[in-house]
Specification:
This protein is an alpha+beta fold and about 90 residues long. It is built from four helices and four strands, in the order βαβαββαα.
Length: about 90
């Protein structure tokens, strides 16, 4: 069984569709990552995204009834790393 997820706007240009099918073990991590979309830390002078505000993760997960586990944190960090690469690529474009 899979679950559907709507991609955040910044991800849509990287995919052909705006809906992504996820395996059940991926759905919680992706839903939490998408919910953290407003919780990025930015460099004060440049505005460049530095990474997620990790203090917001437990509260957001709790509000979504998602149990935080070491594996879930690893999944979030992988998505964070890939998102930062996309943001860096965009900022390097002329």
């Amino acid at each position: 069984m899979t679950e559907a997820a709507t991609l955040p706007d910044w991800m849509q240009e990287r995919r052909d569709a705006t809906v992504l099918e996820l395996a059940p073990d991926e759905a919680s991590a992706f839903a939490l990552f998408a919910a953290l979309g407003t919780q990025w830390r930015h460099h004060a002078m440049t505005g460049i995204r530095l990474g997620l505000d990790y203090t917001a993760i437990p509260a957001t997960a709790a509000m979504m009834a998602i149990d935080m586990t070491p594996g879930l944190l690893v999944d979030l960090r992988v998505m964070e790393h890939e998102a930062l690469a996309v943001f860096a690529e965009r900022s390097a474009r002329p």
